[in-house]
Structures are given as C-alpha cells and as structure tokens.
Amino acid sequence: MAIKVMGQDTKGLNEECGIFGVWGVNEAADMTYYGLHALQHRGQEGAGIVGRQNGKLRQERGLGLLADVFGRGTALQNLAGSDAAVGHVRYATSGSNGIENIQPLLAHFSDSQIALAHNGNLTNQFTLRKQLETDGAIFQSSSDSEILLHLIRRSPAETMGAKIKDALNQVHGGFAFLLLTPDALYAALDPHGFRPFVIGQVDGGQYVVTSETAALNVVGAKFVRDVQPGELVTIDDAGMHIDHFTENTALQIDSMEYIYFARPDSDIYGVNVHTARKRMGATLAAEHAVDADIVVGVPNSSLSVASGYAEATGLPNEMGLVKNQYIARTFIEPTQDRRERAVRMKLSSVRGVVAGKRVVLVDDSIVRGTTSMYIVRMLREAGASEVHVRIGSPRFRFPSFYGIDMQTTEELMAANHSLAEMTAMIGADSLEFLSVDGLVDAIGLKTEQGTGLTTAYFDGHYPSPIYDYAPAMQPFVDAGVVDFMEEP
Amino acid sequence: MAIKVMGQDTKGLNEECGIFGVWGVNEAADMTYYGLHALQHRGQEGAGIVGRQNGKLRQERGLGLLADVFGRGTALQNLAGSDAAVGHVRYATSGSNGIENIQPLLAHFSDSQIALAHNGNLTNQFTLRKQLETDGAIFQSSSDSEILLHLIRRSPAETMGAKIKDALNQVHGGFAFLLLTPDALYAALDPHGFRPFVIGQVDGGQYVVTSETAALNVVGAKFVRDVQPGELVTIDDAGMHIDHFTENTALQIDSMEYIYFARPDSDIYGVNVHTARKRMGATLAAEHAVDADIVVGVPNSSLSVASGYAEATGLPNEMGLVKNQYIARTFIEPTQDRRERAVRMKLSSVRGVVAGKRVVLVDDSIVRGTTSMYIVRMLREAGASEVHVRIGSPRFRFPSFYGIDMQTTEELMAANHSLAEMTAMIGADSLEFLSVDGLVDAIGLKTEQGTGLTTAYFDGHYPSPIYDYAPAMQPFVDAGVVDFMEEP
Amino acid sequence: MAIKVMGQDTKGLNEECGIFGVWGVNEAADMTYYGLHALQHRGQEGAGIVGRQNGKLRQERGLGLLADVFGRGTALQNLAGSDAAVGHVRYATSGSNGIENIQPLLAHFSDSQIALAHNGNLTNQFTLRKQLETDGAIFQSSSDSEILLHLIRRSPAETMGAKIKDALNQVHGGFAFLLLTPDALYAALDPHGFRPFVIGQVDGGQYVVTSETAALNVVGAKFVRDVQPGELVTIDDAGMHIDHFTENTALQIDSMEYIYFARPDSDIYGVNVHTARKRMGATLAAEHAVDADIVVGVPNSSLSVASGYAEATGLPNEMGLVKNQYIARTFIEPTQDRRERAVRMKLSSVRGVVAGKRVVLVDDSIVRGTTSMYIVRMLREAGASEVHVRIGSPRFRFPSFYGIDMQTTEELMAANHSLAEMTAMIGADSLEFLSVDGLVDAIGLKTEQGTGLTTAYFDGHYPSPIYDYAPAMQPFVDAGVVDFMEEP
Amino acid sequence: MAIKVMGQDTKGLNEECGIFGVWGVNEAADMTYYGLHALQHRGQEGAGIVGRQNGKLRQERGLGLLADVFGRGTALQNLAGSDAAVGHVRYATSGSNGIENIQPLLAHFSDSQIALAHNGNLTNQFTLRKQLETDGAIFQSSSDSEILLHLIRRSPAETMGAKIKDALNQVHGGFAFLLLTPDALYAALDPHGFRPFVIGQVDGGQYVVTSETAALNVVGAKFVRDVQPGELVTIDDAGMHIDHFTENTALQIDSMEYIYFARPDSDIYGVNVHTARKRMGATLAAEHAVDADIVVGVPNSSLSVASGYAEATGLPNEMGLVKNQYIARTFIEPTQDRRERAVRMKLSSVRGVVAGKRVVLVDDSIVRGTTSMYIVRMLREAGASEVHVRIGSPRFRFPSFYGIDMQTTEELMAANHSLAEMTAMIGADSLEFLSVDGLVDAIGLKTEQGTGLTTAYFDGHYPSPIYDYAPAMQPFVDAGVVDFMEEP
Which residues form a coiled coil (chains A, B, C, D) (predicted)? Predict the structure, then answer.
C-alpha cells in the first residue's frame, strides 16, 4: 500500500534546510557564510543571507551551493558591514526550484522589514494558505514558510513579539524559525522540537542561533543551550530573552537527525551524533551478528555505525569502499544506466581489501534500495565471497511530514517489500535492520514523557496529528499500521 | 526653486516601460520576445515574460537587456509551447534595482495565478500601499505595480472582470496595464490615456495588445485600434470584449511620447511620430529662424526634427555628428571627466562636414544640458564657425508623475536657469525652444475637450490631481507656476 | 561561373579587423579600449588587448563584443598600469571561431615577448605556412597572422627592426600590422596600402597608430599622417622613426572602405568618408535619375549616400525606414523564415512616410540581395506605390583577397545574375548601380599612378598577383573577365 | 639551508596532472570525462579534452574543476561523436595560470594535428626551450610540455612513431605522455617510471591508458598492465603495439604516489595503495609506539594509515576529526588568520570522541606544518589530554623535480627544523615519522635493481641527474646531504 502525498514527486531522503542567525557582531554576513558552510549538508540547491546594514535589511540569495552564490561575485561584498544576519541553505523539492523560494524570505513594508528562515514543514500549510488567500493575501513563493510572514503581519497583537507568538500558535508541524527585523533576531522551535536548534555565544558575548553545533564550532562560538520545544528566543541589543509561545510541549526530535542528517561532530540535546551512531552499530551487531571476515562501511555517512559494529564484533573495520572527493556536480541524468554510473563515479570498491573476504556491509539506512544494490554488486565484482548487509536503523516504511522530503511511500523499498524480497533485490547474502528499541536505546535520549524521539518512519506512531496530510494517510490508519497522537 | 520628490534620485529622462501581450497563438512567448525587442528603447535594465503553458503561468525574468535575459541560456526555451503571454521591458530607477521588481509580476494562489505588466506611475501609490499594509498585505517588490494585484485580490466583487474594474477605480495616475490569468488577457488604460496602448491582430485573428504600433509590425500584426482612456479590454478564447471601468475620461497623452520616447515608426492616436517630429522641426524653424549654412541633428532621436527644420528652411541637412552603433555597454562611471568621454564614445563630429560652417544644431529636448554642452564643444573643435542650438520641444521645467523617471526639478536646466544662462552654459551662439502652442499644433491631436496632450512639463498645467506627490509640489502652486485640474 | 575559394564558407561582407596601438602613455590599455570601441564596427566576434606592465607583456582576450570581453569582469583591471598596448577587434570566419585566433597574438620567448595585431589577409599564407611547418614550426592558431611571428623569429637578421623588415618582404596581400615588444611598437602597411592606417598624437606628444581616424578622436589624439604603403614605423621611448621595408609601392586602397566599412566620420588619405559617400549619391543621381517623390536611405550605412542622392535631385530625403537601436544580439538561426524576421527586427518601414509615394530606395551595396528583397517588400507593405532601388557602388561580382571576408562568388547576386534578373528577384520597379568611373570620381583619390583604389570587386582588375588563390580564379582569367597586375 | 628553484613560488604539495586516453570507442569524450572525474584529485585548476571527430581533433578546455569546464555549457556536447580522445586535469602553479597552459595542448598543421597530455616535469626543459627558440620555435604556452611537440615536429625521422621516439630520447625527468593524432594514440613513460601509468581494456576490446587504475574502474575497463619505464605504446585501429624508446630503464616510481597522491583504490605496479598505507601505519606503530587511548586519522587522506596504526596497536580507531564534504570552493585569501579558518571550515574535532583522551593523531605527511598545528590545537580545544602525532612517511626535507609542485625547501618544515623544534611548533606532546626503510618495506615494491622507489624527498638520493635544476641544488651536494645517480 503506497501513498503519494499532495502530488509531489520526491527524489530521495533529503533534509530541507540549515539555518544560522547572529546579532550584534562585526561582519555578520561573513560569519553567517562560514556558519552556513558547516550546514551545507542540510541543503545544496540554494542559499541566501539577509544582513542588517545601517539599520536596513538587505537580501542576497541564489540557486546552487553556498560557494556558487557567495564564493564568487559580489553577493557577500554587498552585505559588507552587516551587524546582524540570518542565513539559509535549502534543499528545493522538484517543481518549486525558483529563486523566489530561496530563503531567507524578505518582506518590505513602508515602515519596516522582516526576514524569515525556516527549517521544517508545516502540516496545516494548505488550510492556512487557502484561508489567507481568501482574506486577500498574495503569495510570491510556493514555500510554506511564507505563511508565517502573513500570519505575523495580520496579527492584531501590539508588539512584534506578541504578533510572532500569535502566529506561531496557528501553525503546526515541524519548524525551527529564525526571524530578523531591524530591531531584533527571533528564534522559535515547534512544540515537539522536531528539528535541532542550538544557541551559542561568541567571545564578545554576542549570540548565535543555528541548526547544529557544528556551525558554532566553525565560527568560534561556544555552545550555550539547545532551544527547547515551544520557546521563542529574542536577541537584541539588550541581550537574550527566552520566552515560550506555548507550554504544551513534548520533545520528540526526528530520529533521522541522529541516523543520517546531522553531522557526526554535532551534539543534539547533549548526545554526540557520531557516538550515537557508534552505539547504533554496536546494538546492530548485538541484534544481528554474522560470521564474516571484515566490516566495510559506506563512506562517509555510515563510517560511524560501521566502526561501532566492528568494535563490538572484533572484526577488522576495512576501507573496502572509497568515495570520490569531487562529486558536487555531475551532469548525470536519471536514467537507470546513468544512475548506476553516478554511484560508480561516487564510490569505488577496493579489490585488495575485499577480494576473497566475507564482508559485512554496514549502511545507515535503505530508502529506495538501488544504491545498496549497486554497492553489493561492486563488492562482488571486487571479489567479495559473501556480502551481508547490516543497516543501522529500522526499516523505513512510513512518510515524514515534519521537514524531510519523503512524503510518499511509493518508492520506499521497505514499505513495499518483505525482508526476504529486499534481500533478494539488493543481491545480499543476508540483510538485517536495527530494531526500533535498539535505535531508541542507542540514542539514549529518553525523557520522563517517553523516548524523546520521533520514530514514526519505522513504527507508524506519529507524535502529533498531521492535519492537511491526514486524508492521504487514512488508508494506513484504516489498516491499523499508523496512528497519531493528539497535540500535547 | 528646485524640488526633489519622495527622496528619489533620478538619472535622466527615461520612460519606465514597454509592455506586450498576446492570447491564443502558437509559441506566444517567442512572439512576445520579438514584440519586446521592438520596445527595447522603452526600458533596458530588465525584461520578463510570463507564458501560459498547459493552462499554467510560468515566469522568466532577469536584469539587463532583453537579449541578455532571453537571447542566451534557457529562459525562452523554458516558455516553449506557451499559447498566451505577457512581457515587459523595464527602466529600473536607482535603489530598486532588484530582480524582484522586474515585471511581469506573477502571483500564485492555491486556485489560480495572475501576472501583471505595468507601464506608468500611480500617483496615490504611497497611500494605497500604507493602507494595504495596515490591512495585512505583504509586498515582495518595491514597485507600485504590485498594488493592483492586492486590490484585485481583495476586491469583494464576484468575477475577475469585476474585481479588476473595482481595483482600477482605486488607483490614480498613469497606467497601461496588462494582466494575464490562465483564463484571459486583460488590458486597461488610465482615464487620461497618459501612455500609448494599441491593439493589433495577427493573421489568424488573434489579438495583441502593446505599447507601440512598432511592436505590431515586428510580429506581423495589423493595427486594429488604440485602447481608449478608461477602457478594460478582455481577450480570451471567445475573442475580444471591450468595456469601460470608468466613463469619466479625457484624453491627455503624454506629449513626451511624441517628442522623445516613442519610435518614429509608431503611430499614436493616428499620428505618426516621425511625421509629428518633422512638423515640430518645421514649426521650430518658423518660430526661430537663423542665418546659417547647414542643419545637423543629434542622432538618432533628433533626426526627424532636424529633417523638418532643414526642409522648412531650405538649408542642407548634414551628417555632422555620427553615432557609434555599439554603445550598449560601457564601463563608465559617472565622474564629470568620464561623462564627457561617454558622450565622445557615443557621438563623433565630422570635420569634413562642419568645418567653417555656421551650424544649426537641432536636438529634441534639453534635460540637464551637459550633453548639449559636450556636443557644442565637439562641433567647435571640428571647426564649426557658429553653433545655433534649436530644440524641438519647449523648456522642460516641471516634473512628471505619470510614468517618466523625472520627478524632481533639481537637475532640470530649464527649471533653474534663464534662457540667457542656458545659452552661455552650453556654449552656443544662440539657443531657442519650440513654443507650447507650436508643439500642440505640430502634433495636431486636438480634441473637443482640448489639446489631447499633457504638456505639464513645459507649462505647469497638470491635467489631474497628483495625490501623494501634491505636498512636494505645493511651493510651485504657491508660486503660481503650477496648477492641477480635477479628475474628469 | 561561381567560385569558392579554399573551401571556406562565408557569411556576408565583413571587414576582418580593427587595430589600435599606443606607446608611452599612462593606462595604455584603457586608452586602447576606448580606441577599439570606435572600431567595433570592423569586427564583433572577438577582442583583445596586450599591455606592457613593468616591462612585460600581458594578454587579455575573449570572444564577443569588446564590452563583453572588457566591460565586465577583470580583464581591463588585469592590464592596469600598462604604459604601452596594442588591441584588436576581430571578425572571425566560421570554422575558426576559437579563442586561440583572437588577437593580439602573444608569443613568449625565454628572453623576450612579441605581440601581433593584424588587419588584412595574406595571399601567400598557405605556401608560407606549409614551408614553415616543414621547417618545424608549430602553429597554435589557424590565423594567417601567426605566420609573421614565425618569419620574424626565424629571420637571420640581427636587430628586431631588420628581422621585421625581412619578414614583411616575404608576405603578400593586404596587411596593416601592429607589433609590440617590451622595447617598441612597430607599424607596417602593405605595398598597396589596401587597408587604412593612421598615426595620431596625444597631448603629451605620444603616438597612436590605428585603423581609422575615428579612433583618434575618441582618445583625444590629433591626426598626424596616414601610414604610407611599404612603411615600417617604429615608436619607442626615443620617439617615432619612419622607414620603408620596400620602395616598390603603389597606393590602391580597398574602395570598400569608402563604400561600406569605414565610419563616416573617418578620413582616409585626406578624404572624409561621409563626404565621399555623399558624392557617390550625387553621381548615382546623375547617372540614374528616376521620376519619384521621396528618397529613402537604408539606415545607418546608406544615409550619407541617400543624402547625396536627394540633394542632387532635389527630392526630399525621408526617414521611410527606421533601425532598431538594440540589435547586438539576437538568437536567430539562419533559416529563410528567420532571416526575414531578423531583417524585420532590425528595420521597420514608416507607413506615414512612404504610403502612396514613389520611393527611391538608396543602399550602399548589394551582396546576396536577400536583405534588399525584404526591404522592398516592407516598403510596398507600407504603401509605397513604386520602389526604385539605387545602389551607391557598382555591381559586386568578384571576390576579395586583401582582407574582406568574401572569397567566393557563389552567393554574390551580381556574379550570378543579370541586372534584369536582379531587379525581378528583389521585386523593385527599377534597379541601378553606380559606375566604376563614377565611384572613382566620387572618392576622388586619383594619383599619378592611377585611381589609388582597388576596384577589383567590380571590374575584375586585381592590382597584384593573388598567389595561393590564383588557381581558384583561373576560370575567370580564362574567361577574360579577371586580370592581375604584377607586383610594383 | 633553503633553496628556491627557478624563481617559482609554490603553494603546497600538489601533483601536477592526471591523464586519460582512449581509442576506438563510441563517445570517447564522454568516457574521458568519466575517467578524468576519477583523477580529479590529481589536479583541480584546469581540465581539457581533445576528441577525434570525423577524423579531426577538436579541443575543449577551461580553468577550474572538471565539472566547471565540462559539467555545464556545451563543451562536452561540442565533442559529441568523438571516437578517440585524450584528457587532462591540471594543477597550475601560480604565475602560469592562463588558459594557454591547460592541456591537452593541440597543434594544427596544414596536413595534420597532434594533441599532447603530460603528467610530470622535464628536468632539462630550460635548456631545450632556449635551444628550440634559438632555432626559431615559437611557444604559445609557458608549459614544459609543449617542448615535446616541437621536438617531434622537428625530428628528421620518417614516421610519426620514429619522430616520437627521437623526441622522447631528448627529454629528461618525469613524464607520462599521451599523444593523439588523427591516426593513433601514443603513450610513453620515462625511463624511471616516476609517474604511474596503466593500460586497461573495455568490453569491446578497445584500449584505455590512464594515470591510475581508479579511472579504469569508473569507465568499466579491466586492468591489463602497467606501462613500463621506457615504453612507447601505440594504439590504433590495428590494436595495441608495445615498443621501447630506450632500454636503459630502472623503475623508481615516486614514493609520494603511495604516500599521498594516488587514490586508495588504485593499484600501482601491483600494490594496492590503501593496503600499502595500512602497512605504513602498522610499521609506524612498530617503530614509534606510544601509550594512548585512541587513534585519530586526519580525513580523508590519512584514514588508511591510521587504520593500520590502530590495528597494529590494538587501540580503537576513532572519528575524532570530521571533514566537511563541501570544500571545493572557498573565497579564502591567504592571511594567517584566514588560513586557520580555512582549516576549521574543512575539519572539525569531535568533543564527544576526544575529550579526556590521550590521542595518537595520524597524518600522512608534514609539509609546512601549519595544518598540523591547527589540528593539534583543535583536538586540545575539544578536550584531548595528550596529542601524539605520528606521520606515515619520513621527514620531507628535499625538493622534487619529477612532477610534484615542491621545488623549493624554503617552506618545508623538516628541511629547516629539528624534530624537537617541529614538535614544539605544532604543539604536540610527541612527534615521530616513519623511517625510509620502513616506508620501502611497507610499499614492498623491491626489485632486483633496488627499492623501485624514489625516496629523494626524504634521503636526498636522487635516482637521476637533474639537469637544469642542478645549479640550485649544488649547495646541498656540497653539504653532502644530496647526491644524484647517473642515467641508467
């Protein structure tokens, strides 16, 4: 039973954004550029920075990698002298790849300006947009993020802070928002804390708010605290002020951040991502041991989990696969033949390492399964006598609605095939996945309220209603494989 | 007494737009490209086309000349298969040179789309914008044109046609609007008909609406009629339907269109522009004869008026100045020294023609006067014994508010200096201007209601209130040199 | 009897170069940029400048218009501080459109450098190249100009000046050469002076050498003298030194320079080009009068000749055709249909001027005839009752070998059709051409040795042997319509 | 005692090229693109491909990464239909960064064409170039590679093969050459085999010759054999023919290929690079054990050696440093402050891994030492209690002349400082290097003639005379630390 939500095609498993904001430093746009550089893995199809120059906001943005947009030409020079800035790197879904969707969005008013950078996905966006349009709103982007600007602008509340709170209480889903006005920088996180969001402080005491601690390191900022679910943080010349827009919160951060998205050197709610992945590998080894000669991780994302697996089993952890460092741009078009070549341009097997060996191939996840199939084939061509695939996360069976570009199950291998079928399809001698409990234990984030994690991809237990997406998921609910918690 | 309106710097005398729309043809975007090509003189700093592909509107736009935006790359290919389109070439005033102001603007709704191309200037734009913002509107551009989209969207009227009429009755000033929805192409002209706007028909019977008849010729369309002041024209699969959004109209087209802006091969309200200019030259000769040997026009804009002057006087019309064909791009920065070089890169005097001659130098207008100064100097360097400057229009003394980028008198030579001063400043042996009556007669558009022309630049009689600009003009009103008619 | 020489396709009638050199001024590359700007009409497909910075030569070049190569980016900044420079604008024939052919060429030696800019065509290039290759020379360009570098380098003479003279005596055909070394600027003109070449002097006394006087005006240089056939001019810190590489000279400048290529504001051997064209028009009127109402010239190249024709006949000279100012770039591909559109994008007829009139359409030349056909059609569509075509030069029947891109007669209308056929093909009521004698008289350059002009295109009398091209022309010689003079 | 050779500044340790050639396949340029993609690590500042289309060679090349040159635009389309091709990726040294130096070079002759791609450095290039120039040769590039073209062209031998052999016997130094003519593909390797060079075969039997086996894998070619020192391989429609241009050979491949340059998945003379590096790590552990908690390799180049070190010691191999995947382009300028930031943008330490740990930091080599200093500092900031640096190669003390961009010892830390000084400068608790014997053993290439390796960087024993570079090295020879073997 495959679903396709809202008619959107999807291309893979991609996080939709990284965001970075800073207030009160010299050359704030430069710092934002360096911070976004550390977040480039969270979005490669567009980048933008809005800086505050002489009290006014100026926007620079473009399609492509950060370095395409800001590493050449005058975009960064145009923001010289900024003393506050917000930035964004974006993964644009197909069909909405126009420059108008590249964030931060910037709205101009006769009397003010407001810039917005958003990481996440609003589950009631279609309802809100229709309602706003009925009330006369004109949208220039097809991005759900623009909705918040309209809600803020239309709020009857008196102060900007009150307007923002008002607007935040109308949106649902996953969101880490950064808002910049000429007067302040605002940061807000959804009530479940679906996305990571951290506060740092540079030497001079100025505050930085960004998606991952890795971005703090690059700009020389010290970690202060995670933004907590439901918080609205205001940073201005008077310093940092922490408030809540709602008290009904329950931390359930997206487990995919630990499994795949976040950088290994980032810490999320106090848990180092690399270390969590090593534990996933160790737990996986405990759950699914196999008689083999060497462990080979798929570079670079699965090296941590492979290392955990190898250590737990005592097997040597070998570089049986090598990744080409220069893969940013290829002109590959997506035919089957070319997709295989794309994998071969990216990864090579090392005959001297795997020939004659029984290999445990460790990967972090299986989405479509085609890449796994090509890698298994490459290892066999290089002489591996057996290939046992071990995956550091459970079977990916249900769509995401909180900020990952995977809103359909059509192409999810695990949603449509049994374990035996999958094993055959990728050509492995055996295939096993980490259990959901194993994942939760390995991350180790448990709170009094529960796991602290969203694991709905794997078990179908969504931590909140999904609003506009609910009708599309009804067949799964009817089949008894999916359920939704109430809002806290 | 110099004024500067709304804090805007201005750079010269520039028309702000050319527009082109077509419904129901094959490859409508290609035709629009060719049509805009004939209108490139109306705006060189940005260009855009919105095409209807499979019932949906798609926008392509960019900074620079039409050929920069559409002559390379994939922009025009992206619009392949369009069966309706609107296009725009823009002169962007300094300070608002972002891509977001390049038209046609395109607004997306959950249930529809609307594209807008505007030639003109709305005199109550600041009031309307503030009011709309107070009501929650978010503007993405700083262009006044976006206001109409908000007014249409917020209109309580039932049909699109009624919403547009409603909106048109709220805006004042000069406007030729083209609106494209998936269902129809709409064209509307302000009640004074400040800007030229014509309807043509191609061989298959499909309609084209555009700024000048010159654009009709290029796409092989036959002239049908001028859009009349106050009209709303609707073109869809059922054909053309002509309606009025107001009956209170009075034709007063901007006389600068005849003097300077429009192409000589265009006809406006039945008057050929080249022919009108020849009559200006002839009338100028009658008003201000001078004993001389040859007539030299400033290429290319003043060749018609020079030819009229020469014919009327019997003096030989000589090519004493040559214009470089390749002036599109220079890297000149605006220092005094470089400004003179810019003129010298553009124009050269021909010694063999002017040496030892008493020259009547004919130009169409004097704005700042610096170019005239350089040209007179060049003619003297080439050996002219006398240089008598004759200008085919009256002294330009007051600002424009209906769609020309000259909203201040600070830099207008004639607003700040006497005729004797001007003569000395440009270094001429004599300097004379066409009279306002001479201009009106030469164009010959007189209607029962009056001249059919706006000549406020020259005589201070504005044919309508100027709304948001009124406070800035109050000193002139107080001084008794400017007055405003009521709306018709 | 049509010939096609050396297998080259040709596209039209295009001059192959403009060149500019200067020694001893501040910012010599900037001055060269301005000078080349005035020569852009002589070549639009590539541009380059070599500047001397701190005693070393640096090259910047690129494809496209001068402003594409130097008006953006850093190319001109890279040459900042140059105190001598040579520049080149090029018309690249198809098949050799690579960057390696863009001049000035620059050769590096362990102990020196030499840059070369060439306007013209070497008639013994194939023989020389083959011989040089046999002797081990490696060519990086397919340009004939590179041959001179090899000849200079291989000369056994002692000094650079002697080497250059030696090389110049080995090449035949049309050439104006500029050579720049770290020590001097050299200028040389072929023994017939086929191409124009002038020396000017700026205020500080420094010398400029360039293709046309128009380029002198733009950089503020005074005309000093024409380079004479057979001269080698050396300019260095000691001033200018004029020498001859041969005494066997006979001025026979290409008449096409007066007819079409040169700018009207340029003087060539003391004759102003515009004035010469006016005389061509007057002579044409005397030779081929016709009963008509108005004269219409094809803008911009034929306006001078039309003015001469009109003055001589007393007919009014009217602007019946208007040229679009923005034609630099179109994305037109060369199908018949699109070629007509290209003409329509470039030129428009003015109905108000030509309707009901008997028109004398004056053009400077007819090459293929297709443009003439489209223009006649446009005038008739605009209501002209009769169209009489008068051409300011004789019938173009034979190819050029001295520096114009027309080395075949295949596409030359006059080479393949009678006057009656041509009249019918272009759809004119009548068609007449200026006689060769009329042309010679109108230019008025006669010397003791003869006309001072090359008119071989029209009469088949080539002023020199054509060496490598001779075999291809043999059928014409056999037919008795073409002959070649011996070298002087 | 630091030397600087031939006035060239150097920037780091960079291999100068990767080359790829193929004969007789469909879309040979596409295959070359894929092959070069696998060699991008060997040169990132320029790329080019020459393809044979319809029997003629066409060149496309540009500055930047392969994907910049061929992944966009039309460069690869321009080579469509090629049935043979050679390609090149280049590391351009500063001062010679012009497009004219980007290879393959292509020379045109009246009767033929020849393209050349070169990996290496010719030690008698200055002498040869001067001699050729004296004989009239003109060089268009400043690259030493062009010399071979001139030598071939000037050879009195009869056949192309004989000419090439003749030329190859005149050049000295390191070279793997690919030459393409319309008739054949030639591959030649210098008598010491300084650079890796391998032959592969695709399914249809056609031959590929390239720098590394990694490139064979990507294009689906099977490894056939290494090109042997002194060989000239000819590939044409008749198949492959192997010949020698000299019998005086002695394999001494550059050890840096195993240490740093080559990809881990490549095999060189039968030795897998990753496996060799693991052995270097194991040997290093045996030579320089230390009491520690974890091993951390510098990603990505040192992961193999770190893994060998960890395995040998039984210490856990941890991901204490993470490399940003998106480092291709930064706009960093080389100030000290920015250099540190550049390292921080590229590498991050993982606090959760290193905090409180005694770390063995394993790197492959130390050139300047600044990167090591920053990394040690980062590890300490992340809480490492001790940092012991272990380097998988000996101290880098002497320059290279066979194809690596390090021809000076000025910036080589080990050339100018004692081990104790180096330890202090990088801030490590201890610092040790692999011995030369340990390196030779770990690679394990020993032949009857010797080590099969060039280790001159480390021990000063150069395997050949260095010709034009000899004078600069004389002080080292005098000091008794450097010596040169005779040619074999």
Answer: none
